[in-house]
Write a structure and sequence with these properties.
The chain is mainly α. The chain is built from five helices and two strands. Helix content is about 65%, strand content about 5%.
């Protein structure tokens, strides 16, 4: 499962890079695009912090510039890949105890946290693509199969 999660993380980094590039060349107001992409990065930070037992560095919905997203993205992608590389199959079953943004406490296996993190990003990348279309820019193909074919 760890190699599969690593592939999904690598795909997510590729997709985020394509969306950032599109936002950087879009002629319209990219505020909504950047908001969705910032939330993807915040979720990465929050879930990695929960797994590691530390405090996140980003709020759930941060306001980040294109350059800040690129910088944070590089750091967070590396952190996610490092976390995955350091996992063992047994560690995937370890429960992460955390409180959500409403203060409710949960216990979730690391494997489920990571799968959530990776699929959650896809939802918000779709919203970022919709926001690109809304400002007259072309949507970016960020499908997993497109990434896989390019490998």
């Amino acid at each position: 499962m760890i190699p599969y999660l690593t592939r999904l993380a690598t795909h997510g980094a590729w997709a985020d890079g394509r969306l950032l590039a599109a936002a950087g060349t879009a002629a319209g107001d990219t505020t909504v695009v950047l908001r969705e992409l910032a939330h993807v990065r915040a979720a990465q930070d929050i879930w990695l912090a929960r797994i590691a037992g530390r405090t996140p560095t980003l709020p759930v919905w941060p306001t980040l510039t294109l350059d800040e997203l690129a910088t944070r993205g590089t750091v967070l992608d590396a952190a996610l890949l490092d976390a995955l590389a350091g996992l063992t199959p047994d560690a995937l079953g370890r429960e992460v105890v955390y409180a959500n943004s409403s203060g409710t406490t949960f216990r979730t296996p690391v494997a489920d946290v990571l799968l959530h993190l990776l699929t959650h990003g896809q939802y918000h990348r779709g919203k970022a693509n919709s926001a690109l279309r809304a400002i007259g820019a072309e949507a970016v193909n960020v499908d997993f199969i497109t990434w896989q074919r390019s490998q």
